[in-house]
Amino acid sequence: MQPLIDGLIYIVDDDASVREALAWLLRSRRLASEHFGSAEAFEQLLAEGPLPDQPRCLLLDVRMPGTSGLVLFDRLAERGLLDAMPVIFLTGHADVPTAVDAVKRGAFDFCEKPFSDNALVDRIEQALGASLRALEVQRVRRSLAGRIAELTDRERDVMRLVVEGLPNKLIADQLAISVRTVEVHRARVFEKMEVKSAVELANRLRDL
């Protein structure tokens, strides 16, 4: 069975048997995984550089020696990593209220041990879908930021006033330049931002 979305699942759990069982389950569904025995080991991976630009999610044990899953979750949230890497907590019965609270704070879901294989894989594939959408949004934003960086200061001034809905004559008055100059800058802004109208430009900037 082919997965709905190709992606990478990170497993962070101090119990080797749990890690091995999850890795086997994911292999059986043709899903790639990497596993870590502690939050510290996973943080070392993050310290080595950006994660692969592919859909991903994190299966995270709540209670572990050293840095707990909850502390790691909070650190990931502070770094803005939860959208592109949804977190599914793996919990014992006693940890369910804690996991529910984490979901309210941005975790994707939690699965109580022992968990249903099918239910867990379903949620993993849904998390990968959420990651795919978040990564696409990030790519769009990076592209827009790059286009804006190519604008001159004057083109940015014109763009700001175009988005505010001002006609060329008022833009020219505000910037103390000719209408013809405004028209030239406006055309260059549209070309660099790859839009055909002020409305489309405003929508692009709203995305950013």
Automatic annotation (TrEMBL):
<dbReference type="InterPro" id="IPR000792">
    <property type="entry name" value="Tscrpt_reg_LuxR_C"/>
</dbReference>
<dbReference type="InterPro" id="IPR016032">
    <property type="entry name" value="Sig_transdc_resp-reg_C-effctor"/>
</dbReference>
<feature type="domain" description="Response regulatory">
    <location>
        <begin position="8"/>
        <end position="128"/>
    </location>
</feature>
<dbReference type="GO" id="GO:0000160">
    <property type="term" value="P:phosphorelay signal transduction system"/>
</dbReference>
<dbReference type="GO" id="GO:0003677">
    <property type="term" value="F:DNA binding"/>
</dbReference>
<dbReference type="Pfam" id="PF00072">
    <property type="entry name" value="Response_reg"/>
</dbReference>
<dbReference type="InterPro" id="IPR001789">
    <property type="entry name" value="Sig_transdc_resp-reg_receiver"/>
</dbReference>
<protein>
    <submittedName>
        <fullName>Two-component system response regulator DctR</fullName>
    </submittedName>
</protein>
<dbReference type="Pfam" id="PF00196">
    <property type="entry name" value="GerE"/>
</dbReference>
<dbReference type="GO" id="GO:0006355">
    <property type="term" value="P:regulation of DNA-templated transcription"/>
</dbReference>
<feature type="modified residue" description="4-aspartylphosphate">
    <location>
        <position position="61"/>
    </location>
</feature>
<keyword id="KW-0805">Transcription regulation</keyword>
<keyword id="KW-0238">DNA-binding</keyword>
<keyword id="KW-0804">Transcription</keyword>
<feature type="domain" description="HTH luxR-type">
    <location>
        <begin position="144"/>
        <end position="208"/>
    </location>
</feature>
<keyword id="KW-0597">Phosphoprotein</keyword>
<dbReference type="InterPro" id="IPR011006">
    <property type="entry name" value="CheY-like_superfamily"/>
</dbReference>
<dbReference type="InterPro" id="IPR036388">
    <property type="entry name" value="WH-like_DNA-bd_sf"/>
</dbReference>
